[in-house]
Structures are given as structure tokens and as C-alpha cells.
Write a structure and sequence with these properties.
heterodimer, A: mainly alpha, 15 helices, 38% helix, 1% strand, B: 227 residues, alpha+beta, 9-stranded mixed β-sheet, 5-stranded mixed β-sheet, 36% strand
């Protein structure tokens, strides 16, 4: 009797927790469980709002000119359009292409080389990077304390107006966690709401054959580090994963990026070397990839006829999620700043 | 039977209240230069060189007491940033009952790997403390910076940022000492020896998890000072 009551009570508790989180964070039915530990940073609307305000605020940069959104724009799946290498303060040019931001709750590591182990810690990197925001988390905290907006927002988010590094990072993490893209044509097909065209269907077949081993459905990444055979840029000589592990067998391996919203997240690759998807397929389909650390999935090469390339691109375009790109709750928070 | 349990519960509450009033043994950390207390920003002559230390900070964490193999006490949220500029050093109070039996103390030099990968933390672990690498996740376990006048370092500066929590660059050390119940414990590091004999002969800068960082972590010795 007592036992069953306890069981019921805990079930209700658990359900209500899931339900509360569901309201703010939606786990798509065809996705696995997220990796991010929400119990250590419970989502709350006020904290998400705070994170969004910080994400769009150049106060995070040393010169008050660069915000997170400068390099991660909501209309392009949170990447830096038209720039192969991201641009920061004083027009300094970074060494890598800013990745699209979405479905971060499912990601095990961050950055092209996996340098960051937890989403919470991610923001420290751009804030401190001399070619990005050129600041530091202590000076961000110092500056936020002097504003009229933020102490109040921290109060609403955390119950008192104290501003700490921990709270800043948790708030930004909460906002970027809400960037979930799962309503593309592909997802609608999977949910049985629509169907692929014949060409998209052919492209999907080719995708599963040649690309899915690394760009694994439904997230379109396996979260691993792979060398996809790009010739090394002699100017940047980016060692990729080996920079972190200092292990030569990881040389030129990069984190497999998602292909969701790929139509909008150009230019492509860690150094933004390709402008068009057709350039990407030319690379993969050239059939002569070589590198000592080339992924086993590409050893046999991929050969794609020009017709197959067109089909494959038609499929890749089904990964565009317009609802995600134009979602107003991700956009510039005018209503928050004008409070 | 029920009454008996109730009685035991009441007793436990009383004991707990009791324990708080009792003297709790403390742990302190201190730093030496040539057998005397180290001061930051003070030039020390080594004969051939003049060394000034501007920063000394490190983490010690996960304090636990054992009786034989058995864990009898562990400090909750046990993360302490020790700052060499603070003369007496923060005192770590062991909030334990007077009658607790234990024979050794265990703590960790650095921050455990579970905490390192578990997202952002506050208090002594807040990233505003300047002990977190921004470009690659991980705490700097030990920071020692300063100047040397005749050494070959560029700008005559040395910087040792020792950290790394994953194989093969793991710099976390689990340290264990015999202690007796009630004893106030003081640990000290001979900074002169560490710097002039171990660190400076091999490098002026260690700034990331690396083979050198691991070697350096092994050369940081805590001495338990008898009082």
C-alpha cells in the first residue's frame, strides 16, 4: 500500500519534471535522449531570456562591438555567413569557420576539435579569445554589474541579483540549448506528414549509402572526430583533434558537423573553404582522397555521377527547417532590451 | 521497538548539535622560501638570480578521513582554492564529531575529473577565479608566476599553469597522510625547491596539459608540518 503510494508519487514528480522541461525544451520524438545534464542547470524562462539578452549583447566584448550573434546569426542557422573564417574585434580574423548552432543538447563536445567538454564552458572561449571578443569572464561580470538591465534580469533568473561567472555561463547555455531544429521536410517525412519527391528519395538512398556512417541520422552527426580527406591548408595547418590530444593519429580529424540547415550554413568545412554544396560533393565524389589518418569510412572512396550529385543535394535541402530559421524567440531580443 | 528507534533518533539529533559545538580540527596550507614563510612580490636572491613570485594559487579538493580502509567522513562540496597571497591561508575546518575515529586523511591535488566535465560551478570553482582555461576545457590546478632577473626567459617572466585531467596528461594527484584524531594539520610546500630545482631548470612556461605539466605535477610536494 505504502509502496505503491510512493511509487505513484515519484512517478508524478518525475512526469511533472519532464513536463516542465518539455514546455521550455522540446525533445523531438525521433531524437535520442539529450546528453546535456539539465538537472544541474534547470531551464527557466527568465534564465533563457537572460541568456538570449547576453547572446545578442556586445557588452561581452572588450570593445563593445561584437556579440555572440555577430558570428552566429539566427537567420543562417547561427553561423557567420559569407565569412570563411570568423571575424572578431578590430576586424581580426580567426582561424576557423564559425559552426552552425543547433541541437547542442545532444552534443558531447564542442568546437571543431572538441576542445570544450561541456556546453556551459563554451562561452568562455569566444569571450576570452583575443581575435574574437578579447575580454574575460571577470570583466564581463564587472561590466554587467554596472548596467541597469542585468542585475534585475539576474534577480528574475536566479532569485537574487548577484552576478557571477557561473550564472552568466548557465544563462547563455540555457538559451543556446533551446535552439532545437527538428521540423525540416526530412522530419516531416519521418513523422509521416509528407513524402519525399522521387529525386529526394534517390538522394536519401545515396546519403544512407555514403554519408550516414559519419553524418548519422537523426542528428546528422555521429559526434566523432574524423578525417574526411580535405587537403591540408598549408597556411593554417590546422591539426584538428590532435591539437587537443597531441596524438599524431588524430591529425586532421575534425568533429563531424551536423548537416541540418546545411542550405544556409555556408561556407563549409572548418576553414570555410567551400562556398557551395556542389563543391562539397565534388570533394567527396572525386574518388581520390588520401591522408594517413583518412577515415575508414572513406577509404574506398565515393564515386558519384553528376546526376547523383544533384539528387544528393536535393536530399540535403530537405534538411532545411524554416521554422527554426525564422523562430522569433531566437531572434534579436528587442522586447527585452526595451524593458 | 518503535520507542527504541525514536530514542535513537533523538540521541542522534543531540549528538549532531553537540558535534557542532566541539572544537573541529583544521587544515592549513603554507608556503616556504628558504625555510621561511614565502611572501609574494618580494625579491628573493638565489645567489645567481633574483626571483620574485607574483602569483601562487592552487586547488585542493575532496577532503576525506579514513579509519583503515573505511571512509568515515568526507567534506561536502570540498573544493578549495589556496591563494599564496593570503598569509595564513584559508583554514579548512573538519566539521566532525569529537569521538570520530580516523587514522588518515586523503585529499586531491587539483579538481576531480567528474567535476571538470560536469559543467560550470560556483564558489571557488567559478571561472572568474582565473583558474580555468578558456580555449580548452579544464581547471588550472596550480598556478605559479613571477620574474627572474638573470634567467633566459623572454621578458624575464616565468609562468607555470599546471593542469590536465585526462589520460595521458592527467595532473590530478590523490594524496594520503597518517593523522591522529583531533590533530590540527598543516601542509607546506617548499616553493624555493620546487621552482629553482624542479621547474625552472626545465622550462619557463608551462601553459597547457602536456608531458611537462604531468612531470611538474609530480614535483609539487606537500610536507606535513609537525606542530
Amino acid at each position: 500500500m505504502k509502496k505503491s503510494f510512493l511509487l505513484a508519487a515519484s512517478a508524478i514528480l518525475l512526469l511533472s519534471f519532464v513536463w516542465i522541461q518539455e514546455g521550455l525544451f522540446h525533445k523531438p520524438a525521433n531524437f535520442p535522449d539529450p546528453v546535456y545534464n539539465f538537472t544541474e542547470n534547470r531551464l527557466k524562462q527568465e534564465t533563457i531570456d537572460l541568456g538570449r539578452a547576453l547572446f545578442y549583447d556586445p557588452i561581452l566584448s572588450n570593445t563593445n562591438t561584437i556579440s555572440c550573434a555577430s558570428c552566429h546569426s539566427s537567420y543562417t542557422a547561427f553561423t557567420h555567413v559569407d565569412h570563411a573564417l570568423s571575424h572578431g574585434i578590430f576586424d581580426s580574423i580567426g582561424t576557423r569557420n564559425s559552426p552552425a548552432l543547433m541541437n547542442l543538447a545532444w552534443q558531447k563536445s564542442f568546437m571543431w576539435d572538441g576542445a570544450i567538454n561541456n556546453l556551459d564552458m563554451q562561452s568562455l572561449a569566444p569571450i576570452s579569445h583575443p581575435a574574437e571578443m578579447g575580454s574575460s569572464i571577470d570583466s564581463v561580470v564587472f561590466r554587467l554589474k554596472k548596467t541597469t538591465l542585468y542585475p534585475h534580469m539576474f534577480y528574475q533568473a536566479f532569485g537574487d541579483s548577484e552576478i557571477t561567472g557561473e550564472r552568466c555561463l548557465k544563462a547563455i547555455a540555457q538559451f543556446v540549448l533551446t535552439l532545437v531544429s527538428a521540423n525540416s521536410t526530412y522530419d516531416k517525412v519521418k513523422r509521416g506528414e509528407t513524402a519525399f519527391t522521387e529525386q529526394e528519395e534517390k538522394g536519401y538512398y545515396l546519403f544512407q549509402q555514403h554519408c550516414n556512417s559519419c553524418h548519422t541520422e537523426p542528428l546528422f552527426t555521429n559526434g566523432e572526430f574524423e578525417n574526411n580527406g580535405l587537403p591540408v591548408d598549408s597556411r593554417l595547418r590546422d591539426p584538428g583533434r590532435a591539437k587537443i590530444t597531441q596524438n599524431p593519429s588524430d591529425s586532421f580529424k575534425f568533429k563531424v558537423p551536423t548537416l541540418r540547415n546545411i542550405e544556409f550554413s555556408y561556407p563549409y568545412m572548418h576553414d570555410g573553404r567551400f562556398k557551395r554544396l556542389s563543391d562539397v560533393l565534388k570533394h567527396y565524389g572525386s574518388g581520390k582522397l588520401s591522408s594517413p589518418t583518412l577515415s575508414v569510412h572513406l577509404i574506398n572512396g565515393i564515386s558519384l555521377s553528376s546526376e547523383q550529385r544533384v539528387d544528393l543535394i536535393a536530399f540535403l535541402l530537405t534538411l532545411t527547417d524554416k521554422d527554426f530559421l525564422f523562430e522569433t524567440k531566437y531572434a534579436y531580443p528587442n522586447e527585452i532590451y526595451s524593458r | 521497538m518503535r520507542y527504541c528507534l525514536f530514542f535513537v533518533a533523538v540521541m542522534m539529533v543531540f549528538r549532531n548539535v553537540d558535534a557542532q559545538n566541539q572544537r573541529s580540527p583544521s587544515i592549513r596550507f603554507s608556503h616556504f622560501w628558504n625555510n621561511e614563510q614565502l611572501f609574494l612580490d618580494r625579491p628573493y636572491s638565489t645567489g645567481s638570480d633574483t626571483i620574485t613570485i607574483s602569483k601562487l594559487k592552487y586547488y585542493v579538493s575532496n577532503f576525506q578521513l579514513f579509519k583503515g580502509q573505511k571512509l568515515v567522513w568526507s567534506e561536502p562540496n570540498s573544493y578549495h582554492l589556496i591563494d599564496g597571497s593570503n598569509k595564513s591561508g584559508p583554514e579548512i575546518k573538519l566539521n566532525i564529531s569529537d569521538t570520530m575515529k580516523y587514522d588518515h586523511l586523503v585529499f586531491i591535488f587539483g579538481v576531480d575529473s567528474l567535476t571538470q566535465s560536469g559543467g560550470v560551478k560556483g564558489g571557488d570553482l567559478d571561472p572568474t577565479r582565473g583558474m580555468y582555461w578558456s580555449w580548452q576545457s579544464g581547471y588550472i590546478h596550480f598556478k605559479l608566476e613571477g620574474t627572474c632577473t638573470t634567467c633566459h626567459a623572454t621578458d624575464k617572466e616565468f609562468q607555470f599553469h599546471i593542469g590536465g585531467y585526462t589520460y595521458p596528461f592527467n595532473t590530478i594527484r590523490r594524496l594520503s597522510w597518517p593523522v591522529s584524531p583531533g590533530e590540527n594539520i598543516e601542509f607546506s610546500i617548499d616553493i624555493e625547491e620546487l621552482l629553482t630545482k624542479k621547474l625552472l631548470p626545465s622550462a619557463f612556461h608551462i601553459m597547457s596539459p602536456s608531458v611537462k605539466a604531468v612531470a611538474a605535477s609530480h614535483s609539487i610536494h606537500f610536507l606535513k608540518t609537525e606542530k
